[in-house]
Design a protein that fits this description.
The protein has 446 residues and is of the alpha/beta class. It has two domains: 163 residues, Response regulator (Rossmann fold); 251 residues, Aldolase class I (TIM Barrel). The strands form four sheets. The chain has a seven-stranded mixed sheet with strand order 2-1-3-4-5-8-9, sandwiched between helices. A six-stranded parallel sheet has the order 10-13-14-15-16-17. A two-stranded antiparallel sheet has the order 6-7. The longest helix is centred in the last third of the chain and has 34 residues. It is globular. The chain starts with a strand and ends with a helix.
Length: 446
């Protein structure tokens, strides 16, 4: 049996020569979970620089050449339509292939994801490793026997109506999962050097930020890999791929302080120190922890700060005192760790003055870089419900205002966003030049 796992194209369709820099780890975990039951290959269009005049034809040729029995697709809301179009290509070139859709969008909107994609046969709601193993085990003549007996599935009955099986419980013992499968790429010629440097150490999130779909994509339980499992994988990545850098893609890497301490301690003791970056919250770091992270190789921290207005932070359920944010950024910078802040504007209650206030706060923090995003509702989030569930994301990059949720006129919101964006870009250029000049002085102090 042959399984082809596909990440829907986006950058590939744009034909701008940009490529995806990080392996999609959700697919990689599913691939590892089923490779004892099938030959597993990955088609990752966004890792390739598009060179032709018809990207869909190029995808069709690749799918036809692979001749898979089963195709697994993953999608977030912004790539769901591309996933549906890819499924249609699969059925056109290989009508007998079973097409399965999973990912965050499928988990939050499983019925509409299925019914809106006629070429998709099954939707996996929730984590896909165990569900896909059971799907492959139940295949008979290219179709799944009794899909209702497999938890976490949505399918069409004979009348074309959506049916759902019992929910799939989240995987508790993450250490039992094999490492993500990182080989078997259909297109491997354009892989970015950072492709193998990503890993995750936990799943779920206890926080309930109104713009984030992570809490709705599982049973709201945060589950951790052990420190030994994490460091063993770092050793594997160092030995197998000679990675010069590491990026922890956890939403909040330092969520469990004791486990973070153990991970960093093991990295140091086992001689596996390599520069790494991570994402976390300003209220989840402290001086002693940062000292240890620095010794273990921490090179950059990304803080999700979001707003410079305390009332807005309360409304988005990210209640952190502005003074505490200033202190956390200062602690990171004092240790020579690069610090990037994520900010989001355009929430329904925001005015031009509040948006400018966030920009003032961001530019005054001394951050090495600032990333500005426009608030965009995603299915499964409170922001989606708050704004009527009518704004469908069409991009995975919310650095431009796709929608206007404020009470300002659309043109007025775009104008203030662009004005604030220009300030932030100027800040980033200034910081980049200052860093470059510092590096030059280090090399040629005279």
């Amino acid at each position: 049996m042959k399984v082809l796992l596909i990440d829907p194209p986006q950058k590939f369709l744009e034909g701008q020569g940009r490529t995806r820099q990080v392996q999609p780890l959700g697919l990689a975990y599913v691939g590892a979970a089923i490779e004892d039951r099938a030959e597993v290959r990955f088609l990752l269009p966004d890792t390739r620089v598009w060179r032709g005049d018809d990207p869909w034809r190029e995808l069709a040729r690749a799918i036809e050449a692979e001749a898979p029995d089963v195709v697994g697709l993953t999608a977030v809301t912004a790539t769901w339509r591309a996933a549906a179009a890819t499924a249609a290509v699969v059925k056109r070139v290989n009508p007998e292939a079973l097409v399965v859709l999973g990912g965050v969008h499928a988990s939050t909107e499983p019925v509409s994801a299925l019914m809106g994609a006629p070429a998709v046969d099954l939707v996996v709601a929730g984590e896909g490793e165990e569900t896909m193993r059971e799907v492959l085990g139940a295949l008979e003549g290219g179709r799944v026997r009794d899909p209702g007996s497999i938890a976490g599935l949505v399918w069409r009955d004979e009348a074309g109506q959506a049916r759902r099986s019992a929910p799939r419980a989240s995987i508790g013992a993450l250490d039992a999962l094999p490492y993500p499968k990182r080989d078997g790429l259909v297109w491997a010629d354009d892989i970015h050097p950072t492709f193998y440097q990503a890993m995750v150490t936990l799943r779920g999130c206890p926080y309930r930020c109104i713009y984030c779909a992570v809490p709705s994509s599982n049973d709201r339980q945060t589950r951790y890999r052990s420190a030994t499992s994490v460091v063993d994988e770092i050793a594997h990545l160092r030995a197998r791929y000679d990675i010069p850098y590491l990026f922890f893609h956890d939403s909040v890497f330092t969520l469990n302080r004791a486990r973070t301490v153990e991970i960093c301690t093991q990295i140091i003791e086992r001689g596996l120190v390599v520069p790494f970056a991570c994402q976390t919250r300003t209220d989840r770091v402290d001086p002693a922890l940062l000292d240890l992270m620095k010794a273990a190789g921490c090179h950059q921290i990304f803080f999700g700060i979001e707003s410079g207005d305390y009332d807005s932070l309360i409304k988005i359920r990210k209640k952190t005192a502005l003074g505490a944010i200033v202190e956390a950024v200062g602690q990171v910078k004092a240790r020579g760790i690069r610090c990037t802040g994520f900010f989001m504007v355009g929430f329904p209650w925001e005015t031009e003055a509040l948006i400018e206030k966030t920009a003032d706060f961001a530019c005054g923090l001394g951050l090495d870089a600032i990333s500005l995003f426009s608030a965009t509702p995603l299915p499964g989030t409170e922001l989606w419900e708050m704004t009527g569930g009518v704004h469908e994301a069409t991009s995975i990059d919310f650095r431009a205002p796709e929608v206007n949720l404020t009470r300002m006129e659309a043109g007025a919101y775009r104008a203030v966003f662009e004005r604030v964006e220009a300030r932030i870009k100027a800040h980033n250029r200034e910081r980049m030049m200052a860093r470059f000049e510092g590096e030059v002085r280090e090399c040629w102090p005279g």
